[in-house]
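Continuing from the previous page of notes. For each protein in this section, the sequence appears first, followed by its structure tokens. Read the first protein now.
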Amino acid sequence: MPSAAPLAALLVVFALLTGGSAATGQGSRYHDAGGRVRVALVKQPFQPNGTSPGPTTMAGGGIQDILQELGAVVRVTEIGLTPDEDTEYGGWKRLGMALGHFADEVAQNEREGWFTVGLLATCPSMPGLVAGLQHSGPTRDAIRIGMLWLDAHPDFNTPETTRSGSLGGMPVAVATGRCLTGLRLDAKLDPPLADRFVVMGGIRETDPLEQHLLDQSSIEQLGVDDLTTASAAVRAQLDRLSRITDKIYVHIDMDVLDPREVMGHGNKVEGGPTSEDLAALFEMIFREYPKASAIGFATIPQRDEGGLSIAALNRMIAAAVRGVKARVAGR
């Protein structure tokens, strides 16, 4: 008969591979003993040129009350730099160091059984969140992370292809190992994501050289219609990611939405899905796919007349949490 320690390790490995919990069964790893889902709202305010008030706006826009009304246990944390790191003046370097701390926070959430909702200044926060999932396995070895990237833009430029010079247009290229290795390693994302682990949805605007890079990649894509209908293509991609990866991250740039919901967003593009469409999609994903392990939202518009953008955000977060909550009942 195996000793208790090796048996426990085997159970953890089994849980990781199935997307469930060794202690309480598949799908219930984010629930406490009373069946309440545990949600960690993690504010990551660092961006390439400083910090953004956006994550605090998102955390203070009513979502905590909404989640508590759903019966969730909620905690809120914010990423910062150490005093020594805070002496660094380079914006990209400061971002990389912050993302390393973000990765540590996400990994800790996973180990403690908290569902991470990333409240992100901008999309370059993504490598830190993915890194945290990547290093949340039962050993020091990195596990395989799949990503569903929902954005009006692929953010697949490199310093050689970008027209604007903006790091905001590069995070998927960084995460897949195409550029800025130092930033990726500061974020603790190592190894980079394989192209086959990435699915993009809702892309409607690309730069010419960026499109060339995308055409040469193995990244799969879903159209806006797929997102609005939760089509068979969406399920096929999620089924595929569930087979080939250990955990799945869902990323949303608010500019993926119908512009009427994000009028203050500087990069909005016509023809996007509504937040109601995506809420239905997220509830399905987090209910039916146990490997779906975290969700992150980037770039809340600073100008939000009528509160439409914050309402859209709250709607989507609540839906994802309802999906996680339903896992414990086996629905």
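Done with the first. The second protein uses the same format. Note its length before scrolling.
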Amino acid sequence: MIDRPNGPNEEETTRIVAQIERHMAELREEKTLYAARCKPLHEAIHDTITHAVTTMGFDRKALKVTVRQRELVRKMERLEDDLDAVTQTALDRLQSHLGHFADSPLGRAAMDAARATSRRRKPNPVDDFADDESADAAE
């Protein structure tokens, strides 16, 4: 930062603010274009989920949570793949000190809530199919 006793003058202030506003306008345009490009993909995802729920009996929330969890696991794996050996060692040490999430009070509460939710969840036809196959195999 430049040390100026009186700070920027009016002309400099106007120029910098105008430059920032131009960049912000360009950013808004880019966001609009991005949203327009993503809209068909969002619609396809919505249609796929709706089809799975209405015609195949999937639970909407369970399906969306499963997809999101898998996405987060892949993101975590990519983060760890980019670590060098020293940082990986430090990460392993931190994680061992913190313990597993499911062992923490918050983790236990989350696991209890997930178990309670799974008991209230409507049956998944895929589970019934798997039970039928295992019964057939037992005969």
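What the second structure shows: Residues 42 and 48 are 10 Å apart (CA to CA). The radius of gyration is 26 Å. We return to this in next week's lecture.
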